[in-house]
Amino acid sequence: MGRQSDPKPVFGTRLRRVGGDDGTAGLRVRVRGLLAATHPAPAAVVTVLALVFAVGAGLPAWRAVLVTAAVAAGQLSVGWSNDWLDAARDRRVGRADKPTVSGVVTPSMLRTGALVALGACVVLSLATGVVPGLLHLAAVASAWSYNAGLKATPLSWLPYAVSFGLLPAFVVAAAGDGRVVAGWTALAAALLGVGAHVANVLPDLEDDRATGIRGLPHRLGRRASSVLAPVVLAAGSVVIMLGPPGGPDVATVALTGVAVAAAVAAGVVGVLRPHSRAPFALSMAVAALCVVQLVLAADAVAVHR
């Protein structure tokens, strides 16, 4: 649930610096900058996935809302802490699309927002129960550890595996009825997280290297990472197809087939044209297919002990 920076301009345009404008327009730009710093797309995906898991696991409506709110608060804290801690690095490489670089928001604003969101996450998570609350807080702490330094080590993949793997475990435990998360669900979610991490680094490899970031994808290099990302994501798709009891249905088999085909294409392009953006785009497509599969299989994420 910790995230690399999105290399594209947010909302299709560069954020403009606000210089002394305390009016409504200035406030709107600052709010927009704060929203951009949450990394809204992946934050929304994780939050919606938590809601889908909650509904699929049969949580009462109020518990589903509580779980979703806890995950949303955690995602806000992770996103804001990422841009806060990366502010100096983003300035060094001229990331004008980042709100801290353009001057729309300041690192101190993001630090305050991250800590407030983290406090809300603690309260909301523990409100679901001690065990589920601790599971979710462990996932959020893992994501923060990525932002705080693990992103620059060979273990950069580990927070993604831990945080994504713990997400369905938290949701199922929040039901409070003695059920636990199905093993295939945790494994598939962990693979989804690791694959998304490796793929998401691809557009930023050169900028990261320039500022001393040497995570696993950087050490493997662009060509190897362009192959590894879709392979890991395709493995997650296969796990989702084979994991639920009763065997896969036609839709799941079809989605897995498309995911594997896209992964093969991404790997081939990655080997032949490592600087192409196609491996990243295809890997993100495989990740999206995995999310769809998880949504379709949400009613099988919980099992009795």
TrEMBL record:
Topology within the bilayer: Multi-pass membrane protein
Keywords: Membrane, Transmembrane, Transmembrane helix
Database matches in Pfam families: UbiA
Transmembrane segments: 34-55, 101-127, 157-175, 181-203, 224-244, 250-272, 279-303
Subcellular location, principal: membrane
Subcellular location: Membrane
Keyword Membrane listed: yes
Protein name (Swiss-Prot/TrEMBL): 4-hydroxybenzoate polyprenyltransferase
InterPro entries tied to this protein: UbiA_prenyltransferase (IPR000537), UbiA_sf (IPR044878)
